[in-house]
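Input.
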Amino acid sequence: MTTDALGPNATIGIIGGGQLGRMLALAAAELGLRTHIYCPDKDCPAAQVTDAVTHAAYDDTEALSAFSAAVDVVTYEFENIPVATVNHVAARKPVFPSAKALEVAQDRWQEKSFIRAQGFEVADFFDITDRASLNAALQETGGSGILKTRHFGYDGKGQWRLDADSDLDKVLEDLDGRAAILEALVPFEREVSILVARGRDGSTACYDVIENFHRNHTLHTSTLPAALPDHLPDADPANPHKMAEKLAHALDYVGVLAIECFVVGERLLVNEIAPRVHNSGHLTQDACHVGQFEQHIRAIAGWTLGDATAHSDAVMTNLLGDEIDQWPDLAAQKATHVHLYGKSEARAGRKMGHVTKLSAKTR
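Output.
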């Protein structure tokens, strides 16, 4: 625990008011800490469970200054917040994670270059500025790949899978001049995520690796523990926990960091990092001694990190759109934890909640 650790009734500012902000606020409350949400959306889920809320635009410097004055430390719940917003707040109060982590995660070119510079594998990637650069990149990747905007893409948005039959002119028209990269296709066997928490004092706590299954570009289920190759000993530089710790230290990170990877034979390729608590880590709330939301609050508040060990195996399933209507049946099932986000409208593909089913540990 750091000498300036926050005590009971201190206030944590959270930029962003979605379900991640909501669950962070709930975790803070259990530790006796108050929260103040900053979010433009007046109907945001986090506003239902916080001590205070500011509804203002992310570029409203006057509102940001008043928000900063009302809190003791600040965090953010998603990575598409303008860096200028975080820098404005950071000039007034400590912000964790730092703007550096945000800048790296917001630009896919910077992100993959950073990961590669730390000695970890990523899919081959190419800077795309026009038709000529796209043609050249496709020649390098054998005619196929994933075209992604460098900024502001998630859940399949801002992405196009390209092959010999793709209408490149139409794709470039849809891209509309935005900066982009082309990634080579990866013949992966499974997708996994590694969650690591890093405290203000540099200490770390890692969760067991989680296996993820996507449906229509959106996370459908996460399973703990993941099935991993047996070859990864503790001394291997590609060991998942050593990888996570090295990336967190390189970013001078404070909080929970998620690293999404592809398993390719006996190799781990890093796909992307998320400087925040993560959808795949929701199951840690129920399956681990200290879940990711409490862990993040502990880290940014200067507390000692909690025990990330799993006491149960678990499968988390996202509830999208009308799937939230299943809640009565889900709530009646044994060893099942239902988490609903309080959103007023169920739209197709919208994350409305999640459910975690626990079972006895198998390893």
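The chain has three domains: 11-95, 124-183, 190-359.
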